[in-house]
Amino acid sequence: MRNGILKEAKALIDVTGFPYFVTAMGKGSVPENLPSFGGVYGGRATWPDINNAVETSDCVLWLGNYPVCLPSALLICTC
Known about the structure:
The protein is an alpha+beta fold. It is 24% helix and 24% strand. Strands 2-1-4-3 form a four-stranded mixed β-sheet, with helices on one face. The mean pLDDT is 78.
């Protein structure tokens, strides 16, 4: 991800325990072996349970590219 925020993103995940997701191009940017990792989100091409978790969240914090340009992003959701 741009602007070197990976350390801060990982700290946010650790502190909050909120579910987090990545896009296909964001894979590898944060650990995917933590209990709160929800999977890879890709809009309509996403598994239904992952799509539902992201799209029905009360709040989605996008880190990385603007959501319209899905390629490289980390999503932290409050479900």
